[in-house]
Write a structure and sequence with these properties.
Layout lengths: L7 H27 L3 H8 L3 H8 L11 H10 L1
């Protein structure tokens, strides 16, 4: 069986996507542990609950909703 070769750039992209997924997953777990609803976090961030839901939704993989600024604002809100 042949080994699949992945370019260093592609490997970096894969690693970053995995790190992003894990960070968002941990932030959502922390929100739930603290007992905050999405609506409460949204209010603290000054955004809609839909925006928080989209941020937390990891089914689509990395998205534009996961900018460093958004991650920082979410973390500060929880």
């Amino acid at each position: 069986m042949a080994k699949l070769r992945v370019s260093p750039q592609r490997r970096l992209g894969i690693d970053l996507a995995g790190s992003e997924y894990e960070l968002v997953r941990q932030l959502v777990a922390f929100r739930r542990q603290r007992g905050y609803t999405q609506a409460e976090v949204a209010k603290r961030m000054g955004v809609s609950r839909t925006t928080v839901s989209q941020f937390e939704n990891l089914n689509g993989g990395p998205t534009k909703n996961h900018t460093l600024l958004t991650v920082k604002r979410y973390a500060e809100a929880v």
